């Protein structure tokens, strides 16, 4: 009976109450009682949760799936079972932009260059800020050609602590990104910096710069993207959640927009499951307070 009453209510304004009740074989008095009956606590709670889910989803710019929406809703005072959140998102037509699609940009590697070990060994975790860093170069299409972005990610916080964006991918690009990380206080003496075997990272110029910072070099194997999965993961997030959804007229437009995304979205408000659904900035603050 409740289903019939709900359907009659959903058609309000399209047909008269008399017609709707007659067609479904219910009394008008019964429908009136249903319509005026106070909502149960469960119904009111679900309505409130639904509003919070919608708010969290749109605040994420449609990038959160049900697990992150569930975690963020709990952070805001609305804890719920993940499957309940998943069901509500489906009912509301809330679909994340994430797909399994990945595109890899142009990259030149030097198979036998350098004599650096792999000090990470796919252990992309750290307990202290500034001790284990990973870097990579990705590309961003613009109407004027590619923009190239070099990044430095702190494995303790997953924070993008350094980056540089330009219309070239010379060694200067990766040095500029690492220099930014140093200015941000994110490179401690004897820190590990891990990368792939791209020509920029294997150059004598970059080696010399790392030596001046007392950085230990670490590289993965040629053509094995999993050896630098943390840096690749950041690139994928950037592409799916921002760049693939944005048209950039120029490299400068891309630089400004990606900078805002990194500083205001990725580092500041985007929660990470690997950080216990904290943001990189929150994790950084916690680790620095613990170390103090």
Automatic annotation (TrEMBL):
One of its GO terms (biological process) is DNA integration. SUPFAM superfamilies: Ribonuclease H-like. GO terms for molecular function: nucleic acid binding. It comes from the Bacteria. Residues 107-288 form the Integrase catalytic domain. PANTHER family: TRANSPOSASE INSF FOR INSERTION SEQUENCE IS3B-RELATED (PTHR46889), TRANSPOSASE INSO FOR INSERTION SEQUENCE ELEMENT IS911B-RELATED (PTHR46889:SF4). NCBIfam families: transpos_IS3. Involved in the transposition of the insertion sequence. This is Transposase InsO family protein.
